[in-house]
Amino acid sequence: QQQVKQSPQSLIVQKGGISIINCAYENTAFDYFPWYQQFPGKGPALLIAIRPDVSEKKEGRFTISFNKSAKQFSLHIMDSQPGDSATYFCAASMMSGNQFYFGTGTSLTVIP
Amino acid sequence: NAGVMQNPRHLVRRRGQEARLRCSPMKGHSHVYWYRQLPEEGLKFMVYLQKENIIDESGMPKERFSAEFPKEGPSILRIQQVVRGDSAAYFCASSPLGGEVGEQYFGPGTRLTVT
Question: Whose C-alpha in A59, A97, A98, B73 is 20 to 30 A from the C-alpha of B97?
């Protein structure tokens, strides 16, 4: 079964706008939540990650919001740029574990 | 500082042939993970290896798939008697000795097409 559910599947945003991608998980043992960015033909690259002891983490234009009680987390991209056009994957894992559980991805297109 | 290297980048095999995918981890990394990405889907964990040891193969199909990470040389994911359903992108990730799961760095992937 899909351990991490991601939405929307695709997203189109105007340059300068805010892109928001949402993920939900079921396993309360997860304690590490990274977001990956993937350009066509490339491997996923770690963008930003959060642990459940904080509700928000910001790095530049990228912010993760985390809601532990709702078992949800989201990625916000402020001032979206055409260069942000890529596929974004959320993931979850246990720090004591060996693997990530990935969402199904969101294809983001930022229109100039 | 070279990243994770995978080769070949593209591989075409006919049904019934064998596919061998190679992964060279980042320098200083001794843990390797293999993931499979089917079209329109996220990555799915297959196997986690350390040098000469398979640590977790809970995501590997029971038949036709095998992985190794020898003392010398790259990690190899082998798919025997490939079928069309094996067509996918296969990604390798590596992490340093003693590192946490969050420190996985991904390679560019091998795109396998089975005709």
Answer: A59
Return d(Cα B23, Cα B93) in angstroms, integer.
8
Given CB atoms, is A32 within the 8 Å cutoff of chain B?
yes
- For A19, the enclosing helix (H) or strand (E) is strand A19-25
Alpha carbons A99 and B56: distance in angstroms, whole number: 9
Q: How far is A61 from chain B (nearest CA, A)?
A: 21
Tell if the CB–CB gap between A43 and B108 is shorter than 8 Å: yes
pLDDT tens digit at each of 112 positions of chain A? 678 999 999 999 999 999 999 999 999 999 999 999 999 888 899 899 999 899 999 999 999 999 999 999 999 999 999 999 999 999 998 877 778 899 999 999 999 9
Contact call for A32 and B101, based on CB within 8 A? yes
Provide the shortest C-alpha distance from residue B73 to chain A (in Å): 21
CB-CB contact of B13 with B114 (8 Å) = yes
